[in-house]
Structure formats: structure tokens, C-alpha cells
Amino acid sequence: MLYISQPSLSNAIREIEKETGITLFIRSRSGISLTQEGMEFLGYARQVLQQMELLEDKYIADVPQKTRFGVSTQHYTFTENAFVDLVKRFGQERYEFYFNETGTHQILEDVKNRISDLGVIYLSKENDTVLCKTMDDLQLRFEPLFSATPHVFLWKEHPLARRGGLRLADLQPFPRLNFVQGSYESAYYSEELFSTVPSPKQIRINDRGAIVNFMLGLNAYTISSGIFPRYLHGDNIIAVPLLEEEAIRIGYVINEKQELSELGRIYVDELLKYAPQT
């Protein structure tokens, strides 16, 4: 693909490793894989290559500059809607935008390795200590946007749907839906509050469309922010307040020494439009 021989490529990689004093790849009989340092190096290298493309577009190819921006986020509909608003507001003739709904730790990795400009997660009393330590280790910082009270998402015909508020004990007979977190399957990385509370029926999924279908077909529920509950199936899904002592602090994650780009500021402005009214 690079139109060079394999030995030439191997020599080039060894020269980079020698010059930087780090090991980029782990070599084995089955092939090679990136080290942690290699992933970080790749993030910086990706930025350099993107800047080169911008220079070539502007001064050599004589084409309009391509705008690039990426977001990694937990499975929130409002982050997707804000991204659509961003593209409509700023979309030019040439752009390359990236939007990734994924697990909590992968969001942090995406931002650390500069695959995404920023990530959207939440903090609570339950996960604050672990996630803040992880962000410190990855040299990331959390900037709060707004707080929301926890809600239970249910099918409108669910046996509990007409209650004015619910307790965790009320939910015990029904299947609980949690988003998959891959290798980091623990309560601290969970996208749902109160994941440390045992539930006799649990279903883990990785698709936001599936979560609605399971609510409709199984009387299942999930716990989330309650922001913009009318998604995918319109009025079929409702949000009922969860009457437990907890708050969801939603914010964005960015590299410690990095400031928001112009697009980043626009995206944050769009996110704030979905903040709960107080």
C-alpha cells in the first residue's frame, strides 16, 4: 500500500524508535501491535499528517481547506442532535467530521490519542473518584456543562409508567438495560447510574436502537439523564423521575493542555441548548 518494501518499512520504524527512545510496536509470531506509547505517538503523528494535508490543499492542490472535527460520546441522543446542529451551522464545501458513540474508557482513549477533539461523559458520586484518577493518568481534564437528575426510561405502557416517581426497589422485577463497556465492564465505567445495585435481570447491549426495541418488547428499563426522552420511537418512550439521591454531571473531556477549537466551542454551545431548564 505504501509502495515500499517490508524491510524498508521495518527499518524506518526502528529508526523512529531509536530516535524517540520508545518502543512503538510489540512484535510477535502472530504479527505486531501498538504499545501504549505507540498509541500516543500515533495520535500526534495523525495530527501532523492532517496538517500536511491542509498545507497541500491550500498551497499545492489549490482546493478549499478541509475542516476536521471529531467527538466521542456516551449513548446520548442530545449529543447526536448537537452534532447535527453543528454540521448544519458550520458545514462548508469540504469537511471531515467524526462522531463515535462508544464505551466510557474508549471515549477517554479517543481524546487522549487525538482521534476525537473532545469526549462527552458524565460524573456522579458513584464514579467520580475512579474516572477522575483515570483522566489524570491520561492527562485529560473534565469541563462540566450542566447537571441533570436521574430518570428511568420506560415504554409508555409499562406497568410503572403512570407513577410520578420511582425507587430502585420498584424496578427489581423488570429487566435492566446497560450499554456494553467492553474490557472495562465495571460500575465505574458504566453509562447508567446505580450499576453497583444488584439486578436479577440484566441485558447488555451496544446499540441505541436495540435499547428501545427491548423496552417495547420486554418491559425493560434503563436509567439515564431524562434529557430529550422522545427519541427513535417518539412518544412510545417516557422518562419517569428516579427518586434516589444522586445527580448526573454531564461535561466534556479534552486534553489537559489543549483548548477548545472554534468547532469545539460551537459544539459545546449546541450541547448547552439541551441543558435541563431550572
Please explain how this structure is put together.
The protein has eight helices and twelve strands. It has helices spanning 6-20, 36-60, 77-90, 104-112, 128-137, 168-171, 208-218, 262-272; strands spanning 25-28, 31-34, 67-73, 95-101, 118-123, 140-148, 151-155, 176-179, 202-205, 222-224, 237-241, 248-255. β3 (67-73), α3 (77-90) and β4 (95-101) form a beta-alpha-beta unit. It starts with 5 loop residues before the first helix and ends in a 6-residue tail after the last helix.
Notable traits:
single chain; 278 residues; alpha/beta; D-Maltodextrin-Binding Protein, domain 2; 2 domains; five-stranded mixed sheet; three-stranded antiparallel sheet; 8 helices; globular
Describe the largest sheet. Answer: 5 strands, mixed
Number of strands: 12
State the end-to-end distance.
56 Å
Number of domains: 2
Order of helices and strands: HEEHEHEHEHEEHEEHEEEH
- Rg to the nearest angstrom? 22 Å
Low-confidence spans: pLDDT under 50, at least 5 residues? none
The helix content is 25-40%
Annotated CATH homologous superfamily of the largest domain = Periplasmic binding protein-like II
Question: Proportion of β residues?
Answer: 15-25%
